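Thread title: Can someone regenerate the structure for this chain?

I was given the following input by a collaborator and told the matching structure tokens would be attached. They weren't. Posting the sequence so someone can regenerate them.
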Amino acid sequence: MNKNVRKEYEKIGFFAEGKLTEGKVKFNDVKSGTKIDYGMGTIYQVVKNDGRRIYMTLRNAGRFGGLFAPKTDMDKSSYESQVKVRLIKNVVTAEEQADAENVSEETILAKKVSRLKEMGYKITKEGEV
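Best answer:
Regenerated them for you:
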């Protein structure tokens, strides 16, 4: 590709580096159980990564219905390309899913209380005035 054309594409963000693979979820870090979100509710779950290809099954077809195949595979270059052009919106590893599910109700409540305090609300315990 011509260098000038590439520069023009970079200006509009077409060749912007994908945030998903920059230090977060690289191809080799995608393991069984990882969920790949294509947006609009379409989610694939990784069944296997043999180092050359990742094999996936469709978990939620989202708004596109039959547009996505029920089972598919993808090689490393396709994964990186889909991240770069932002076809893949989010990648959540199995470890991140487990961490999100293990958050206690007290932690969630404490975060909500701290947000309300930051917004200027006075928070008291039940029975206090």
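Confidence is low (pLDDT under 50) at residues 12-23.
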